[in-house]
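Input sequence (145 aa), recorded before submission:
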Amino acid sequence: MTRLVATAFGAGFGFVLAWAQLTDPERIRQMLLLEDAHYYLMMATAFAVGTLGTRLLRTRRAHALVTGELVSVEHSALERRHVTGSILFGLGWAVTNACPGPIAAQLGQGLWWSLLTLAGFLVGARLQADLALRTDGRFRFSVGP
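Predicted structure, C-alpha cell format:
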C-alpha cells in the first residue's frame, strides 16, 4: 500500500513539475540568472506550506495516514557535509538545469536528453556515497527497495 501511494504521489508531483514548467531548461536558466522569480516564489510557497503544515501536525500529535507513524522532524546540527553538499547540488543544478525531481519529470515527458542528466546524477550519487563511506564509515548507498 505504501508503494502504491508513493507512486501515485510521485506521478502527481511529476505532473505538477511539468505543468509549472519546472522541467523547462530555459525557464530554469532564467531563474538561476535571477531573471525570473517564478521558481523562487513556488519554492517559498512550498517551504511555507510544508513548515506550517508539519508544525500543525506535530502540535496535534498526528499520525501519518498511510504508515500510522507519529509525524516528527529530526533536527541535526549544521555540518561541513551539509554546506559542501549544498554547493555541489547548486553547481549541478546550474550546469544541467535540473535537479532530481525535474529529471524524473523530464523522463516522464520523453525528453531523451534527460537520460544524460540522469546518468550524471547517478554517477555523482555513487561518487558521493563512496567518498562518505571512506571518510566516516557510516553512510550506505543502495539503489532499489
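Checked by second reader. The chain has a mean pLDDT of 82.
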